[in-house]
Design goal:
Elements: E1 2-6, H1 13-21, E2 31-35, H2 39-58, E3 77-81, H3 84-88, E4 93-96, H4 102-115, H5 125-149, E5 154-157, H6 162-173, E6 177-179, H7 183-194, E7 202-209, E8 212-220, E9 223-224, H8 226-230, H9 233-236, H10 240-245, H11 247-253, E10 256-257, H12 262-265, H13 267-276, H14 281-296, H15 305-319, H16 323-329, H17 344-357, E11 361-368, E12 381-389, E13 392-395, H18 403-425, H19 428-437, H20 444-457
Parallel strand pairs: 1-2, 1-4, 2-3, 4-5, 5-6
Antiparallel strand pairs: 7-8, 8-9, 8-10, 11-12, 12-13
Helix pairs in contact: 1-2, 1-17, 2-14, 2-15, 4-5, 4-14, 4-20, 5-6, 5-18, 13-16, 14-15, 18-19, 19-20
C-alpha cells in the first residue's frame, strides 16, 4: 500500500513511521510519500525517518541485522516532494496533518486572544476559531485535489481543529475522510489500567465532539466499572484527568471529561495562568522546534543524530503539555505514566488495517453523526466509538447526552457551522458570529476586536470582507 502524508515535515511524522516499521503483516504500507511546502522541514524529517529505519534494521529479530546506517530490509520506502498532485497520485491512504500559518500562527492566535482576556488555545475558544478560519479553505481545496488525483484513497485527518476540518473535507469526500485524535485513546487507556483491565479488553462509552467529550462508562466483561472508579478518591486523583478536575467534580459529573474540557470548567483560572506564563504554548513549541529542525537538518551530522534530536525534543514537549492547566489544578509535573503517547499513530494504523484488510476494529473516531446523536443533524461530525471494516467507519449507537453536555456540544457545533459558512462566503459577519457564539467569548464587542486583530496579522484571513 502507498501512504501519503500531507504536512510530511511535521514533528509527529516519526510516530507514524515508527508504527509502520513495526507492522510485519501482509498488505502493509510499502511506500510513504511526504508532502510539505517547506523543503527544509522535509529534509530534516527525511533524515529522522532514515535513522528510524536504520535502528529498526539493527534490531531486526529475524537476524543480526545490517549495520546501523543501513536501511531496514522491509522499511517502507520514503520519498519527499513539494508537489501536491505528485504526492497524491497512486495513494491508497492520505494522512492530512497540515498546519496553516505554522507555529508562528498559533503563537499569534494565543497572544491576540489573551490580550482580550479570552482563551487562545489552538482548538478551543478564540484561538481555535482563528485557526479554523485559516485552515478550512485550505482543507477544502486539498479535499478537491484528493478527489481528482486519488479518488480511491481513504483520508485520515489529523489536522486541528480535527472535527471541524473533517467535516469540511467530508463535503467533498463523504465517508472516505475520517478524523482521529489521541486524547480519547489516552484517557480510555489510563482508566482501563486503573480498573485492572487491558485497554483492548474494555469497551469505552465515549461521546462528544473532538476535544469536547466524556467517558460515561467503561465496560469490562459486560459490567460498567466506572462507578467503582468514581467512588475511589485516591484512584481518581492518581491519573492526569483526575488530578486536573478533582474527584469531587468528576463525581458531580458522573463521568470523566476529556482533558480539554478543563478550559471550559476552569476557564477563568486557566486564562489567568496563561496570561501570567512566561510564554504561550505555541510560542514555546515554535522556539523549541526551530532548534530541532536546525539541528536535524544540519548537513554532515553523524548517523542517528537527527533521531536523537527528535527524541529529546519530543520528551520535553510531552513533559510540558498543558502545564498551565496543571498549575491551576495544583498538581505539579506530569506523572511518568502520563507521558506515554496517546497513540494516535496506533489508531491510524489500526484504522488503515481495518479498511485495507477488512479486519474489524472498534475505535474512537471523528465521523458523520447520521442518527447517533439526536441533538445534531446527520452531517455533523462527532467523536464516538465506531465499528470499522472495509467499508469505512460506522458510529455505534450511544445513549443521549445529559443536558449540561448537550448545551456545550450544540453551542460549539453552532460555532463550527459559522466557521464553515464564513470560509465558504468570505463573510465577515459570519466570522464575527462564530467568535461571539462561542461559550468562552463573552461579548460581541470582543468578538469584533478578535477578528480585527487576527485579520491584521494573518494573511490567510484576507478573504474575509
Amino acid at each position: 500500500m502507498r501512504l501519503t502524508i500531507l504536512g510530511g515535515g511535521g514533528f509527529r511524522v516519526p510516530l507514524v513511521y515508527g508504527a509502520l516499521l513495526g507492522d510485519r503483516a501482509e498488505g502493509r504500507v510499502s511506500h510513504v510519500t511526504l508532502y510539505d511546502e517547506d523543503p527544509a522541514r522535509l529534509t530534516a524529517m527525511t533524515r529522522v525517518l532514515r535513522d528510524q529505519a536504520a535502528v529498526a534494521a539493527a534490531h531486526d529479530p529475524a537476524g543480526d541485522g545490517p549495520a546501523v546506517d543501513a536501511p531496514a530490509v522491509d522499511a517502507p520506502a520514503v520519498t519527499a516532494t513539494g508537489d501536491l498532485d505528485e504526492a497524491l497520485r497512486g495513494a491508497d491512504f492520505v494522512f492530512s496533518a497540515i498546519r496553516v500559518g505554522g507555529l508562528e500562527g498559533r503563537a499569534t492566535d494565543e497572544r491576540i486572544a489573551l490580550a482580550e482576556g479570552v482563551l487562545g488555545q489552538e482548538t478551543v475558544g478564540a484561538g481555535g476559531i482563528a485557526y479554523g478560519l485559516r485552515t478550512v479553505p485550505v482543507a477544502r481545496e486539498i479535499a478537491r485535489r484528493i478527489a481528482r488525483s486519488a479518488p480511491g484513497a481513504w483520508v485520515i485527518n489529523f489536522t486541528n481543529p480535527a472535527g471541524l476540518v473533517t467535516e469540511a473535507m467530508a463535503e467533498e469526500l463523504g465517508g472516505r475522510v475520517i478524523g482521529i485524535c489521541d486524547s480519547p485513546v489516552g484517557l480510555g487507556r489510563r482508566i482501563a489500567r486503573l480498573l485492572g483491565a487491558r485497554p483492548q479488553d474494555a469497551w469505552i462509552d465515549y461521546v462528544g465532539l473532538n476535544h469536547l467529550g466524556w467517558v460515561r462508562g467503561l465496560r469490562i466483561g459486560g459490567r460498567d466499572e466506572l462507578p467503582r472508579l468514581l467512588a475511589d478518591t485516591e484512584a481518581l486523583e492518581s491519573f492526569e484527568e483526575g488530578r486536573l478536575f478533582g474527584a469531587e467534580w468528576l463525581r458531580s459529573l458522573g463521568a470523566i471529561p476529556n482533558e480539554y474540557l478543563h478550559y471550559y470548567y476552569f476557564n477563568r483560572d486557566t486564562v489567568r495562568a496563561y496570561q501570567e506564563a512566561k510564554q504561550t504554548r505555541g510560542a514555546f513549541l515554535r522556539d523549541q522546534q526551530r532548534g530541532f529542525y536546525a539541528e536535524a537538518g544540519r548537513s554532515g551530522a553523524p548517523a542517528g543524530a537527527a533521531l536523537a534530536a527528535w527524541d529529546r525534543t519530543r520528551a520535553e514537549r510531552e513533559a510540558t503539555y498543558m502545564a498551565e492547566n496543571r498549575e491551576v489544578a495544583g498538581v505539579g509535573e506530569r506523572d511518568g505514566s502520563d507521558l506515554e503517547s496517546g497513540g494516535y499513530e496506533k489508531v491510524a494504523l489500526a484504522l488503515m488495517r481495518a479498511i485495507a484488510r477488512d479486519e474489524r476494529a472498534t475505535l474512537i473516531l471523528n465521523v458523520r453523526n447520521g442518527s447517533t446523536l439526536s441533538v445534531l443533524d446527520a452531517g455533523a461530525v462527532i467523536e464516538v466509538p465506531c465499528l470499522v471494516d472495509a467499508n469505512g467507519a460506522h458510529p455505534v449507537g450511544v445513549e443521549q447526552l445529559p443536558l449540561h453536555a448537550v448545551g456545550l456540544v450544540t453551542a460549539v457545533k453552532a460555532v463550527e457551522r459559522e466557521i464553515l459558512a464564513a470560509a465558504a462566503s468570505g463573510s465577515r459577519a459570519d466570522a464575527v458570529k462564530a467568535f461571539a457564539l462561542h461559550p468562552l467569548v463573552d461579548s460581541v464587542g470582543v468578538a469584533r476586536r478578535l477578528l480585527d486583530g487576527y485579520a491584521a496579522e494573518h494573511p490567510g484571513l484576507s478573504y474575509l470582507r
